[in-house]
Amino acid sequence: MHSRFVTIAGYKIHVLEAGTGPLVLLLHGFAGSAEDWRPTVAAVANMGYRAMAVDALGFGRSAKPGDAPYSLALMARIYTGILDQCGVTQATLIGHSMGGKYALATAVLHPERVNGLVLVASDGFVEASRLTMAGGWPLVGQAILWLSAQPRVVRMLLTAAFADPERHLTAEILERGRAALMGKDNRRALTALSRQYAATDLGLTGLRTRLGELTMPTLLVWGESDQVFPVEACGYVARSEIPKAHLVILPHCGHFPQIESPRLFQGALAGFLAGLG
Predict the structure, then answer these.
(1) Residues contacting residue 133 through CB under 8 Å, at least 6 positions apart
(2) What is the model's pLDDT at position 39?
(3) Is the pTM of this model over 0.85?
(4) What are 7's strand-pairing partners?
(5) Distant-in-sequence contacts of 141-145, Cβ < 8 A, 24+ apart
(6) How do 114-120 and 23-27 pair as beta strands?
(7) Which stretches make up the AB hydrolase-1 domain (predicted)?
C-alpha cells in the first residue's frame, strides 16, 4: 500500500492505494481521511481490485484552500478526474457518511463513469441543521470548530458514533478526529466548506430529486445502532429513493461499519463487487 498525490482541477489531492484490477474509489466522512479506509483498502485489494482511498478536498493530506468553490459538482469533477488520470472510464464508488453524498452526486452528474455504488451510513437524507448552516459564519464557525476540537467533546461525539466504543474507539481514532479540526489550514478549509454548505447538500442543490435517475447497482450498508444517520430515518429512505438499492443492516453496529463490523462489512462488499462482473 502506498500514498501519492495527484493534481485535479488545480488542487493537490492525496490518495492511498493498493492492488490491481478494476478501480474502486473509497470516500471518507466528515473530519475523516483516507486513513479511515486503510484496512478496507487492503481487503478490497486482496479481492482483486485496485483500491484507492481519497482524501477529499479540504481534508486529510489534500489541499485545504479557503477560497475554493466547494460544491458537489466540484467534488464530482475531482473524482472523475482521478478516473481520467488512472486511464479508466468507470469505477465503483464506496462512500461513508459525507463521502456517501459525494459518491451520490458523482453518480447523478456523471452516471456513465460509475458502475456501482456502495453507500455506508450515508449523508444526504436529512435536512441541514441551523448549527450546520451557522458554521459558515466567520466568528460562529471558528467558535464551533474550537469547541468541537476539545478532547472531551471529540470523545463524546465519537463515543456516540459507535455501538461499542470501549472496544472500537481507539486512541488513534480519537487523535485523528481531533487533529482534523485543529490547525490554521484545517479550520480555514472547514469554515469555507461550511460557508458554502448549500452547494454541498443533496437537497439544496436539487440533486436528491434526481436519485431516481440512477440505474447502477447500489449497496446500502447501515449499522442498526447508528445514531448519526439512523437507519430508520436515513437507510430506509435511501432504499426507497434509489432504484436497484439493496439495504444491509449490521447488528450491534454504529456509524462506522467498516471499523466496528469489518468482517460482515467486507463480506457484503465482496459479494456486491463480484456481482458487478
Answers:
(1) 194, 197
(2) 97
(3) yes
(4) 12
(5) 141/190, 141/191, 141/194, 141/195, 142/187, 142/191, 145/181, 145/187, 145/190, 145/191
(6) unpaired
(7) 22-262
CB contact at 8 A, 199 and 69 = yes
Q: What span, in angstroms and rounded, lies between the C-alpha atoms of 87 and 96?
A: 25
Residue 157's nearest CA partner among 134, 120, 131, 125 is 131
Residue 11, amino acid: Y
The strand pairing partners of 91, in sequence order, are: 114
199: helix, strand or coil: helix
The string of DSSP codes covering 212-260 is GG--S-EEEEEETT-SSS-IIIIIHHHHHHSTTEEEEEETT--S-HHHH
**Per-residue model confidence as pLDDT tens digits over 81-140:** 999 999 999 999 999 999 999 999 999 999 999 999 999 999 999 987 665 555 555 556
